[in-house]
Design a protein that fits this description.
Order of helices and strands: HHHHHHHHHHHHHHHHHHH
Strand content: under 5%
Shape: globular
Distance between the termini: 20 Å
Mean pLDDT: 87
Largest sheet: none
Oligomer: single chain
Number of helices: 19
Number of strands: 0
Length: 435
């Protein structure tokens, strides 16, 4: 079982590590410009896209769950239609986003906090990066489908190509062409389309036999469509609440001042580094749990859950130790602004707590998605964001300032792990008992 997990997890970890690496490079490029405002600008601009894409991130998670279960059941037709249905939604989604980009920009200006200069830079970033939406949406579908097919090497190659090219293009546009936040956005757009081209090449070379002729009656089968939308609607709500919480955290950081916003965005990079590393195992859980449910293999289903949490402990403790002993060198890699380096130090404790508090939530996400236990994952997110995070923010921010904001955020992550553990007996183990 460990070999099965690592076979899927290691490529995911390699590909996921390139994602926060890209974020770090973007922060470094902006952090070494003349003002901390540039870090805040790409943070707010990135928040807009995090919120937008949260509506459609189910395209990856849902596709993985459905495809993995079809793979385990050896259902050739449904393996193909899992991709077709997701791609249909993706095409409609990116057409919609491109048509309403102006209203989205105006609404974002109204909702985001920060100085006028900062918001203007963020919107400049938005109007360039929005043109990556078609590639981004379709890559959700392809990556979810490849993972469901028990192949994480292809998403790894795609991610490495996207993020390495993104870094190269961003450095070129920012350092050589002097285009600050617009340069970072241009790098993202070009790299996303290179990744999409790579995905299509893999599809037509390695999985050509699954490109069966589309039967509109099968594609729009009422029972399949109902299940598709039921699961994906729940996953969409879950994603929206997750991104809402992070976006709310970012916006509240901006209200505390441009320097606090920059500090919190730097600290969040360490949250993302750990989350993307742990997500390697979560994605392995999605693929394996889905496969074993499709194959009605209750023994291996139990085993994979147990082994995933052992790996969660193995990786969270070293991360906490590294964050505890080497915080300042990591921060200096991102920004050399003296005021930022000085003011960030009281918040180092949250870097240490992040791995210990958050790993259970990340792993349960993968297990629930693989089981397509969408209602439960939606409900646990409602509890964590609305019942835990918002009250903690309301009570603690006025008293403890930025410390209160961080306590509320970590309380949100802790609540996710605890609530999903509580609901697992009914929503995951019950599937085992019914085999």
């Amino acid at each position: 079982m460990n070999r099965s997990i690592l076979k899927l997890a290691i490529p995911n970890i390699i590909s996921n590590i390139t994602i926060p690496l890209l974020g770090l490079v973007d922060m470094m490029l902006m952090g070494h410009l003349s003002s901390p405002i540039y870090i805040g600008a790409i943070a707010l601009g990135g928040t807009i896209f995090s919120v937008l894409y949260s509506f459609f991130s189910f395209l990856r998670a849902g596709t993985t769950g459905f495809t993995a279960q079809s793979f385990g059941a050896s259902d050739f037709s449904e393996i193909s239609y899992s991709l077709y249905r997701s791609m249909t939604i993706a095409i409609l989604a990116f057409i919609l986003l491109l048509c309403i980009q102006e209203p989205i920009a105006r609404l974002s200006l109204a909702l985001l906090d920060g100085s006028d200069d900062l918001k203007n830079l963020a919107i400049s970033y938005f109007f360039v990066r929005i043109w990556a939406a078609p590639a981004n949406m379709m890559l959700y579908c392809f990556n979810g489908w490849f993972i469901g097919m028990q192949n994480t090497k292809i998403p790894m190659v795609i991610a490495i190509i996207i993020n390495v090219l993104n870094i190269v293009f961003s450095i070129f546009f920012v350092v050589v062409m002097k285009q600050d936040v617009v340069g970072v956005a241009l790098g993202t757009v070009i790299a996303q389309y290179c990744g999409l081209l790579t995905a299509l090449i893999f599809l037509f070379t390695k999985y050509k036999k699954y490109l069966i002729k589309i039967d509109i009656h099968i594609l729009l089968n009422i029972n399949k469509i109902k299940r598709f939308f039921k699961v994906n609607t729940d996953l969409m709500i879950r994603s929206i609440l997750l991104v809402f919480t992070i976006a709310f955290f970012t916006n509240q950081s901006a209200r505390l001042g441009d320097n606090i916003l920059s500090i919190n965005m730097i600290l969040l990079q360490f949250f993302y580094i750990f989350s993307y590393f742990t997500d390697g195992f979560a994605y392995a859980g999605e693929a394996l749990v889905g496969k074993y449910i499709g194959a009605k293999d209750s023994g291996n289903l139990r085993s994979v859950v147990m082994h995933l949490f052992k790996w969660g402990v193995y990786i969270s403790v070293p991360f906490a130790i590294i964050y505890a002993f080497f915080p300042t060198p990591f921060v200096k890699m991102i920004s050399d602004q003296p005021i930022i380096i000085e003011q960030i130090q009281p918040y180092y404790i949250y870097m240490v707590l992040i791995p210990i508090i958050t790993f259970a939530a990340f792993l349960w996400d993968g297990i629930y998605i693989g089981a397509t236990a969408s209602k439960a994952i939606r409900n646990t997110m409602i509890i964590s964001s609305i019942v835990v995070f918002l009250p903690l923010w309301y009570l603690l921010l006025p008293v403890y300032g930025n410390h209160g904001l961080w306590i509320a955020f970590l309380g949100f992550m802790l609540a996710r792990g605890i609530s999903m553990t509580f609901f697992a007996k009914k929503n995951i183990l019950q599937i085992v008992n019914n085999q």
